[in-house]
Amino acid sequence: MIKVKLAYHDDALTYVKVSGHANSDEYGKDLVCAGVSTIIVGVYNTLEKLGMLDIGTFKVEEGLAEFIIHKITRESQLILETLVTTLETIEYSYGDFIQIKKMEE
After folding, report:
1. What's this model's pTM, rounded to 2 decimal places?
2. What family is reported (predicted)?
3. Percent of the chain with pLDDT over 90
4. How would you list the strands of the sheet with 2-9, edge to edge?
């Protein structure tokens, strides 16, 4: 199962951790893993393209993505909320394979 941990401080997303594997199908056919991986890498690439990687610390590797946001900007929050909305959409359709936990710091 893919586990997503989201932490907010004063309504701003400050931490994202996505770990695990969905195992919804065999390797190469797992649509849940493919969807989650696509949005994680897409958000990271968008932040990089816009020169916004200085807002935090980012780790993206096999089975783990972790974003720690140090500098809150309106633009970065919009991009990160796109990540959250997309992950919630995947969870709605494939809840047996992805679980999202939100917390306030």
Report:
1. 0.91
2. Belongs to the Prp family.
3. 83
4. 56-61, 64-69, 12-19, 2-9, 98-104
